[in-house]
Amino acid sequence: MTRLVALVLLLWCVAFVRDRTEDWIAATEIPVLVHATSPEIRDRDGTLLRAYTIEDGIWRMALSPDQVDPLFYEMLIAYEDKRFRSHAGVDPVATLRAAFQALRHGRIVSGASTLTMQVARLLEDGSTGRWDGKLRQMRLALALEGRLDKDEILALYLQLAPYGGNIEGLRAAALVWLGKEPARLTPAEAALLVALPQAPESRRPDRHPEAARQARNRVLLRMARDGVIPLSAACSDQLDPAPLGRQPMPQLAPHMADRALALGPGRHDLTLSAELQRSMEDLARRAMQGRDPRLSMAIVLADHQSGEILASVGSPDYTATLGQGFVDMTTAQRSPGSTLKPLVYALAFERGLAHPETLILDTPVQFGSYAPGNFDGTYRGELPVRRALQLSLNIPVVRLTEALGPAHLMAALRESGVQPGLQGGAPGLALSLGGVGVTLEEMVQLYAMMARGGEALPLRWRQADPAGHPSRVLDRAASWQVGKILSDLAPPPAAGRPGRVAYKTGTSYGHRDAWTLGWDGQHVAGVWIGRPDGTPVPGAFGGDLAAPLLFEALGRARLRPAPLPPPPPETLIVSHPQLPEPLKRFGLRDATPALQLTFPPAGARLQADGAGIPVKLRGGTPPYTLLADGAVLATGLRRPEFLAPLPGRGFTTLSVVDSAGQAGRVSIELR
Known about the structure:
Helix content: 25-40%
Low-confidence stretches: none
Largest sheet: 5 strands, antiparallel
Shape: elongated
CATH superfamily of the domain at 61-237: Biosynthetic peptidoglycan transglycosylase-like
Mean pLDDT: 88
Distance between the termini: 150 Å
CATH topology of the domain at 61-237: Penicillin binding protein transpeptidase fold
CATH architecture of the domain at 61-237: Orthogonal Bundle
Oligomer: single chain
Strand content: 15-25%
């Protein structure tokens, strides 16, 4: 009877202690289990482009179990906590062994901290040297085991473990110390990452590389002894050099990454390709080497079929100060120079104002107070529209703009996705020569529209953004005709033969901006070079600076050449004599009497006496402009008879152009 009472009392005491212990554990206040992680910007395949530190400059990266090499898990548990999967947060075997060794030797010989207890210490940022601290960790460890499963506890350890300096967590450690993700680790790399959290500051590879190497080797030998890795692997990996310093965190697409971060923290998946982005950044850096440090450069590369931006370079060097590298020049408004001309010609083709074989005048002309001139100051008379676009002549495109109406050109820009910045009131004729502010990204979208056969599709750079709906801006035939004209241009030296890339160069007023934009059968790209502050760059021409880089960018983007498309069935492909009569010549007014140069007659031989050569006209509409061999001699002439001041002797072509664009010319010889 007495024994029975004693047994009942014992069981009651055990139950009481158990219940009180459970209540004590259940009453444990659990610290915050969700911790901030570094914002990450990733490419279309999940490759890390750039990451940002969290508060206090800490690197702490999000990590999922499938991102870790299984070998690391094996080595960590075998080295730190063999019974992790079976104990309840506190390992009684390890605790008794540690206590016995401490009593026997009078000092701590081995620790008894489980991985769960280490997580408890990391959560509370507590110490391990005092018994009260150890007891608190044991209580929190038991509480954690009651609320989390083993994988969740292990995930907390991998996220919070210290790895020296401002590095927390396995993934940040692998990137900083090894320069790689932890998904594929050698035994030596895994051993180093197991060893560092035990003494993160005294084993930092950048400050104590020998200590880091020795700690790593101890882990390797222990893993071989425990059968986790072969002894041969442990011996060979001990010969591998330990890291001697920090590896730079990925810094690809810094400007685009900043744009993504501005939308909020967390992970942002972009449409960029890390491989292409790295290639385009290398191209920009190489192109700017040895040039004026105040120069900047931007590149945008996109898939014009999907509308996805594949690479975006805002400057050659994000950290450059003289070149204001922090300014994203893909989104800065600049004058596009002649790169808007293809749109003008395409609109003229679509609306029946002209055909590539239509003849148009490149002669002096005045529209009210506006008198445009060509870039080189010379005039070529009557020539095909196709050739006028290839030569990027100003006067023909202004004539077409006047016929279209600048407001219609502005509307087509907006329909293409361009938000033009216009100073002053309504758009004028100078719009077609670059008299408007646009961004490189917008210009790439405009050229993507022409590459798609006249369908505008908004470019996108975030995978979370839905694909836009295409909208028709131009008909297919007009878009193809412009692409055909531009693809027949001779490419830069060593860039291949014509017909593969349709491209257009441009230089803004004062040589402030050098542009080249173009496309092949799959990709569209744009290159801009200039100074971010808008000051002139003497001698800068889009064809000289930017065009070779465009061809190289498109060449790097494709595994195989992507041919330009064939003409749509409705395209009118004829020679000039086969054109309908209204399309044979642009801009002649039927009501205006034909301009005739009646004197001097063609082939005349005249004596140059210094007083000038008499010129007589019939028909036409004043004012008249007088040219000799394409050079302007006089403008604003209103009388049909005047003296022409012809310098020098020899053969010369004398031309007179009226205000309607009609021209008369004769070839004479001066003696």
